[in-house]
Design brief:
By secondary structure, this protein is mainly α. The protein has 7 helices and no strands. It has helices at residues 3-6, 8-24, 36-66, 69-101, 109-131, 134-153, 172-196.
Length: 200
């Protein structure tokens, strides 16, 4: 195996290309037409970010209990990977807004909260990187997802009506495609996490 193909960055870029191709062939929807593909992509991206935050918290808890260095390394990498996906989901969200609703509704409550958590999360990860204190990183990753889930659970829904429109659509082509897109996005997240993984 060449040095290039050993790089997580190489496999991340490869998985992104696969995601782009898959999204292009996603099923259309009666109201939004082909533009619904951007909604699929933005949905998969934000779910991936939340999964990474949750894993960072879980591994962080294990790290605090076990005091093992390997778990501290993985909670660090997962937290950084999570904020990467969270920040990069914001332009996808704006693109989906523009394409489907012909404008940017930046005052939408959940979008404003997402922007706030992007800024706070980025500053948090930068601070944790500079301080490089294992227990603080683990504890902060736990606190971050707890705060995010609590605040979003009480946020007003305008452009994000619950429950999930995709999983409650009854359209198995759309559901199956969205699940597959999520799996591929999670694969890309694995390579990003490997890229951020501190050296042991």
């Amino acid at each position: 195996m060449s040095k290039l193909t050993k790089s997580p960055l190489f496999w991340f870029i490869s998985s992104i290309l696969a995601i782009v191709v898959m999204t292009f062939f996603g099923p259309e929807e009666a109201t939004l037409g082909a533009n619904v593909r951007l909604v699929y992509l933005h949905g998969a991206w934000v779910l991936t970010a939340e999964l990474l935050f949750a894993l960072a918290a879980l591994i962080g808890l294990i790290a605090l209990i076990s005091r093992k260095e390997a778990f501290y390394r993985w909670t660090t990498a997962l937290g950084r990977s999570g904020i990467f996906y969270w920040i990069s989901y914001l332009p996808l969200s704006m693109w989906a807004m523009q394409a489907n609703w012909n404008g940017l509704f930046l005052a939408e409550p959940r979008f404003r909260l997402a922007m706030t958590f992007a800024i706070v999360g980025l500053l948090l990860q930068l601070g944790l990187w500079m301080l490089n204190i294992n227990w603080l990183t683990a504890f902060s990753n736990i606190a971050f997802i707890a705060a995010l889930r609590f605040i979003f659970a009480t946020a007003e829904n305008i452009m994000h009506p619950p429950p999930s429109p995709i999983f409650n659509s009854g359209n198995w082509a759309i559901i199956g495609f969205f699940v597959g897109l999520n799996l591929l996005t999670w694969l890309s997240a694995y390579f990003v996490t490997r890229f951020f993984l501190p050296k042991g």
